[in-house]
Amino acid sequence: MSVLVFVEGLNGEVKKSSLEAASYGSQVAQQLGTTTTAIAIGDVQEAALAKLGEQGVSKVLYDGDSRLNQFIADAYVKVIAKAVQQENAKVLVFSNSNIGAAVGAKLAVRLNGSLATNVTALPTIDGGSFVVTRGVFSGKAFADVALTSDLKIVAIKKNSIDITSGGGSATVENFSADLADADFAVSPKETVMQDTNGGVLLPEAAIVVSGGRGLKGPENWHLVEDLAKELGAATACSKPVSDMDWRPHHEHVGQTGITVSPNLYIAIGISGAIQHLAGVNSSKVIVVINKDPEAPFFKAADYGIVGDAFEIVPKIIEAAKALDK
């Protein structure tokens, strides 16, 4: 028996959210007195997989079938299900990503497992009881959920678990689920990936700098980008901004866009409509910059600055540059 962790890759490297999942899985394995195995798919370098040993993973099963470089739900489910059965895994850990949420649900049905998404803390394990804490109501509340099936499937909320380090190197073994063409019968016609331009992928970011209509036009977006660059952050925007084509839609954060849960969310010139808050209120710290003291976003903020963004943001950028010196 082992704890199995599904690992996602990007550009040959393991995603930060998967390092968090591996750290979580290894700590659960310690509680259960067992080992941690990872299953990886697609475009991830072997050296990057071996480094998962630093998070306590002892073995990595790797299926390098190039057809898996693109997310195909049925094929991913087949590969992971075979790994669960081969390793006799009783706990399966994902990152709470689009892939993790979709595949986790399918696996729960296929393997008769109990699934908990958006999990924020290590489980409480007492005898046969396995209880996890998960965020609910867009992060406004928490619920303790008992997973009672033989297979427990857990999807970890991003930025909720610290990445551990200090272990050794994991062994990497080739793995195959003998996929057939039928496993790829349902596939997306096109996959559009966010162009990070060497920066941080928005769903993975620990810090997000976001802008709204208060910036008055796309020609002023350099304020958001410059601050994000200094902080090592991803950039985001409100829905009106993406609707007006100031920014691409994949940067739109909110109820109908991407949901983020960074350690720090900086909102510049965003009023704070409830639809936007639904996508960001899981952030650990929210800073709001707005010249309107009645902007509703201030009610959700941990820190607020009432003032003109065109005066305040350049000062913050200069302060961030000074910290780097």
TrEMBL record:
Superkingdom as given in the UniProt entry? Bacteria
Name of this chain's protein: Electron transfer flavoprotein alpha subunit apoprotein
Cofactor: binding comment: Binds 1 FAD per dimer.
Tell me which residues bind FAD: R213, G269, I270, S271, G272, A273, I274, Q275, H276, N290
Q: Which residues form the Electron transfer flavoprotein alpha/beta-subunit N-terminal domain?
A: 3-188
Which is one GO molecular function term here? electron transfer activity
Keywords carried by this UniProt record = Electron transport, FAD, Flavoprotein, Transport
Query: Required co-factor?
Result: FAD
Q: Which Pfam families match?
A: ETF, ETF_alpha
Question: Which GO BP terms sit in this record?
Answer: fatty acid beta-oxidation using acyl-CoA dehydrogenase
Flavoprotein: present as a keyword of the record?
yes
* Keyword flag Amino-acid biosynthesis: no
InterPro entries listed in its UniProt record? DHS-like_NAD/FAD-binding_dom, ETF_a/b_N, ETF_a/FixB, ETF_asu_C, Rossmann-like_a/b/a_fold
The record's similarity note reads: Belongs to the ETF alpha-subunit/FixB family.
